Amino acid sequence: MDLGQSIHSKEEDDHQEDDIEEPSATPLWKYVTKVTGEGSSKGGGGSAKFSCNFGCQTKPYTGSYLRVRAHLIGVPAGQKKKGVQRCPVLSKEEVELLKEEESNAQRLFGNSKSKKQLPMGQLVRILPL
User: Fold this and answer.
1) Which of 1, 80, 90, 116 is 20 to 30 A (C-alpha) from 58?
2) 0.70 surpassed by pTM
3) What DSSP line would sit under 3-71, residue for residue?
4) Region class of 58: left (phi > 0), else alpha (psi between -120 and 50), else beta
5) Do the Cβ atoms of 49 and 60 come closer than 8 Å?
6) Distances (CA, A) of 45 to 41, 66, 85, 87
7) pLDDT one-digit tens code per residue, 82-121
């Protein structure tokens, strides 16, 4: 999957043409698909089964947002590995774009997962789907 492509189906896009994507404290979730069924998380937070939208592995991973982050952009220097291989499909440039998106979310939300209002005129660069 190309980062420039939408991960949504055409039908979903038709219903969401006028929707504006709101900033999220966990922006990398949109690049994986949560797998429902046995062993998956019920509700928010905690572990979930997820598969990478870039097609690098058929077997889903189990973990939280930290494991999604580790898979898509790697683990920051000095942090413990999360037991997930970094996505081999993504180029260095794509990883840098995802890191920038994650960094923007961290600046906007800090450690809080709650939605915050953007000051007037402040733009947050969001990677196109």
Assistant:
1) 80
2) no
3) TTS-SS-HHHHHHSTT--PPP-S-GGGGGEEEEPSTT---SSSS-EEEEETT-S-SSPEEE-HHHHHHH
4) alpha
5) yes
6) 8, 11, 22, 23
7) 788 899 999 999 999 999 999 999 888 886 555 555 555 5
Q: Say which residue the tokens 């600046």 belong to.
A: 107
The three-state secondary structure class of 102 is helix
Q: On the CB side of 75, how many CA atoms lie within 13 Å of its CA?
A: 11
| Parallel/antiparallel/unpaired status of strands 61-63 and 32-35 | unpaired
Residue 127, Cα to own-chain centre: how many angstroms? 10
Q: Domain segments of the chain: what residues?
A: 22-109
Summarize pLDDT for 39-62 with one digit per residue, the tens: 544 555 678 899 999 999 888 999
- Between CA 15 and CA 9 the distance in angstroms is 10
